[in-house]
Amino acid sequence: MNFCRPTIVISKCLEFEACRYDGALISNKHIRKLKEFIDFKVVCPEVEIGMGVPRDTIRIINNKGQRVLYQDGTGKDFSKKMTQFSKNYLSKLTKVDGFILKSKSPSCGIRSAKVFRGIKGEAVGSGSGFFAEQVLSLFPAHPAEQESRLSDVFYREHFYSA
Fold this sequence. Notes:
Blueprint (H helix, E strand, L loop, with lengths): L6 E5 L17 H6 L4 E5 L1 H4 L10 E5 L2 E6 L4 E2 L1 H13 L6 E4 L11 E5 L5 E5 L2 H9 L5 E3 L6 H9 L1
Parallel strand pairs: 1-2, 1-6, 3-7, 6-9
Antiparallel strand pairs: 3-4, 4-5, 7-8
């Protein structure tokens, strides 16, 4: 029997390429099993906007009510570049059935990325990463999940059946 293979956009560091800030690859048995049944579109927004591997970490800071994607090591603000890339990449998707993104990432975390008070301030909460924020805005009816939650059978089942 032939079945339609869903297309899922996934963070490249999840089972596909060692592209995290520290040069690591994240292993996930649930994603590994899905490779047989799903067409994955892999993306690392940070690499796509020109950050190398390895690279200085980035974080989301709340600067007077405005979110900024800031890299401490270089003093660079990647907010505009990341937002522009995200909108451009997502607007060109012709077929996508869902998203699996890296948890706690300042680019890909879905409501799990730490938000800091100012450049040198402490964490004051959490929110979505810059890429994930655009995913949720442009694809509100599509299933979107973080790899960390796929280990929970209820979240996994919900993602598979959504």
